[in-house]
Design brief:
The chain is mostly helical and about 270 residues long. The chain contains nine helices and two strands. About 70% of the residues lie in helices and about 0% in strands. Helix 2 packs antiparallel against helix 3 and helix 2 (about 55-85) packs antiparallel against helix 8.
Length: about 270
């Protein structure tokens, strides 16, 4: 059975009067899952340090690896959804996020956990632009449907941030099957599988006239790495010279500073 495909041009007067049943629950489940995971790791840090004998730098990268991968992948992730279909890219991102969560949960050492967290960040970078784009294209624009949908999206992000601390503490305290902090990541496996099944309710949608500008995407990624990396590491290391050089390089690498045609094409239409 095929699902309808919605292009950017279909969001005007010809759009359906209401979103297909199940779209909003599916999007909010995925949103809650990614927001929860971003904050749940903060509670698990002491247990991770004891179990993996991780040093301060490794612990910092458990958080920074996720944030850096997310920041550098958002723009390209949004454009990929415009080109290949938002539901398809959302499913790919959710699958990657779920698999990466399992890798984090079974990590034998700190380096493996950092690598898993970076993969989670890539998955989240594919997920987040698609949720916003689907809300805009599938949920009808006339008030009050779309404003209510975005309000629920924002509320879900906030609840994920708050409950990340609570759920993390409960899971570590329960220590089910002796998994301790690992359960904070492994809990994403059943949630991710359920969310993937729910994605079937979402119609496919694409942007019009979309293309992936690889030079522009590489330039934006390099600029974001140069900006985010010193902001993450600078305070911990006492702001050495390389952090200031990176910040200056970020300004030079800004897409607006280079005459590359179509650089804006790397930006998401979301």
């Amino acid at each position: 059975m095929t699902t309808p495909t919605i292009t950017a041009a279909a969001t005007g007067a010809g759009a359906a009067p209401r979103a297909p049943r199940g779209v909003l629950p599916a999007l909010l489940t995925v949103t809650f899952m990614t927001a929860l995971d971003f904050f749940i790791v903060n509670v698990a840090m002491p247990a991770i340090q004891r179990d993996l004998r991780a040093g301060p730098s490794a612990l910092q990268w458990v958080v920074a690896g996720f944030g850096l991968a997310l920041a550098t992948g958002l723009i390209t992730g949004g454009r990929l959804g415009d080109i290949y279909g938002r539901r398809r890219v959302l499913a790919a991102g959710l699958t990657l996020f779920t698999v990466a969560s399992v890798l984090c949960g079974v990590a034998p050492a700190a380096w493996a956990l950092v690598a898993g967290r970076a993969l989670q960040g890539v998955g989240a970078a594919l997920i987040m632009p698609q949720t916003l784009a689907v809300l805009r294209t599938v949920v009808p624009a006339p008030a009050p449907a779309q404003p209510k949908a975005f309000a629920r999206y924002g509320l879900t992000l906030g609840l994920g941030a708050v409950f990340g601390q609570v759920v993390g503490g409960v899971l570590i305290k329960a220590d089910l099957f002796g998994l301790d902090w690992r359960l904070c990541f492994l809990i994403n496996l059943p949630i991710g599988v359920a969310a993937l099944a729910m994605l079937r309710t979402i119609p496919e949608s694409r942007g019009t006239g979309s293309r992936l500008d690889l030079p522009g995407a590489a330039l934006v990624t390099a600029a974001l790495v140069a900006l985010v990396l010193p902001l993450i590491q600078g305070r911990e290391l006492g702001w050495p010279l390389w952090t200031w050089l990176c910040l200056g390089l970020a300004a030079v690498l800004s897409p607006d500073s280079w005459p590359i045609s179509g650089t804006a094409g790397a930006r998401s239409s979301t």
